[in-house]
Amino acid sequence: MALLGGHEKKHKVTIVGSGNWGSTIAKIIAENTRANKELFEEEVQMWVYEEDVSIPKTSPHYDEAVGDAPQKLTHIINKYHENVKYLPGIALPSNIVANPSLVDAVQDSTILIFNLPHQFIRNVCDQIRGKIVPFARGISCIKGVNVSDEGVSLFSEWIGDGLNIYVGALSGANIASEIAAEKWSETTIAYDPPPMDNSRAPTPRSQSPNVTMTVTEPPADMQHRDARGRKSKAKLTPVPAEYPPLDHECFRTLFHRPYFHVQMVSDVAGVSLGGALKNIVALAAGFVDGRGWGDNAKAAVMRIGLMEMVKFGKEFFGETVRTGTFTESSAGVADLITSCSGGRNFRCAKKAVEKGITVDEVEKQDLNGQKLQGTSTAFEVNSFLKARGLEMDYPLFTAVNSILLGKASVDDIPNLVSETEKKPLSIL
Ligand SMILES: NC(=O)c1ccc[n+]([C@@H]2O[C@H](COP(=O)([O-])OP(=O)(O)OC[C@H]3O[C@@H](n4cnc5c(N)ncnc54)[C@H](O)[C@@H]3O)[C@@H](O)[C@H]2O)c1
Ligand SMILES: O=P(O)(O)OC[C@H](O)CO
């Protein structure tokens, strides 16, 4: 029987991750699957890294009979429709199912949303490799880059290559707590549909989208290209014609809300790098603010940081990366501004300088299990630059890493970045 959208099957969506941003994105998606039942299964699976959590006395869900006794986080989310640890005070739609089993949560899902701190993604992908729908497509909401001996890669591509699926990227000026409270914001989704998705695959014999199903191999000329324009390593399987197309319109419908406006673009590298590298700049902004230097100093590190973000993108991902993604989209300059105003990296770096303690110590004391991405990204990007003798070409990124390691102080920043003042302005 054909469904309303003219397709026999609907997409099933799983959110892999349930932290501050993961739970917020789950809320957005569950509202949209409920509103677009012709395209999506209403129920949304959310994989939760299981923990024992005590409900605080101040919570409306505190039960005298249970008291402070720890309960499973998945049980709490499914019973009270609230992630009391990572997104307290926000009602989650009842069509979100918190699932502690990663393999079970992703089973039969045709859309996978990866949303967890980047240090955990490797282990997660290892567990689900070969256990997902072969024609699934993904979106990575992770703000970080993957650095190895071979070089630097985007998490969207790293996940896609590992799982043999295509993965786009979502990033923007998106402080989760504001969006969860339905305060208006914008985001950018980079999705560059594989060519085979434009000429749909024949309907497979099996009626169930399980992993043993055989699907026709795409012709060689349908090989997808990665963000650097090279042939993608992922061996993609076409999406069967009985599903709604997984195109810009479909993803916009899945993510766009009246309070969360979506711009669709194709520059996956620019969007991903914007989200990852701004975290290093936000630490710098926190350092100078914590030192009491005020808005002029903060604007200076943001200016230099933006230059280094664009330079890094062009130098290591080639001309396919668009300068406009950094200077015009929510994933670029807008995210830089919001992160340097009220993000966790900014706030923790500021407090570290004010209190004379390390950023890691503030993270442990203040964030209740949430994870900063800027500290590890600063370290990873520095190892990558150092191995290539390029530290001095990125003086702000290098200064942030040196301050984190205790090898430089905030007072050194003006001298460390002063070479940038001698550079001529580029003509755009
Ligand atoms: N929070 C925000 O405002 C925000 C906004 C936009 C993007 N992001 C990005 O989204 C990504 C996810 O961030 P978040 O804010 O949802 O996470 P978070 O900082 O709230 O991190 C905690 C999450 O990590 C999980 N976790 C802890 N130990 C784990 C383990 N060993 N294995 C797997 N998971 C484990 C926890 O269960 C929890 O879900 C990050 O890349 C972040 O930069 C965050
Ligand atoms: O709180 P942060 O520093 O992880 O930043 C959150 C978001 O990335 C802002 O867009």
From TrEMBL:
One of its GO terms (biological process) is carbohydrate metabolic process. One of its GO terms (molecular function) is NAD binding. Its EC number is 1.1.1.8. It is an enzyme of class 1 (oxidoreductase). Pfam families: NAD_Gly3P_dh_C, NAD_Gly3P_dh_N. Residues 192-239 are annotated as: Disordered. Residues 12-192 form the Glycerol-3-phosphate dehydrogenase NAD-dependent N-terminal domain. GO terms for cellular component: cytosol; nucleus. PROSITE patterns: NAD_G3PDH. It catalyses: sn-glycerol 3-phosphate + NAD(+) = dihydroxyacetone phosphate + NADH + H(+). InterPro entries: 6-PGluconate_DH-like_C_sf, 6PGD_dom2, G3P_DH_NAD-dep, G3P_DH_NAD-dep_C, G3P_DH_NAD-dep_N, NAD(P)-bd_dom_sf. It comes from the Eukaryota. Residues 200-215 have a biased composition (Polar residues). Keywords: NAD, Oxidoreductase. Residues 267-413 form the Glycerol-3-phosphate dehydrogenase NAD-dependent C-terminal domain. PANTHER family: GLYCEROL-3-PHOSPHATE DEHYDROGENASE, GLYCEROL-3-PHOSPHATE DEHYDROGENASE [NAD(+)]-RELATED. Belongs to the NAD-dependent glycerol-3-phosphate dehydrogenase family. This is Glycerol-3-phosphate dehydrogenase [NAD(+)]. It comes from Hypocrea jecorina (strain QM6a) (Trichoderma reesei).
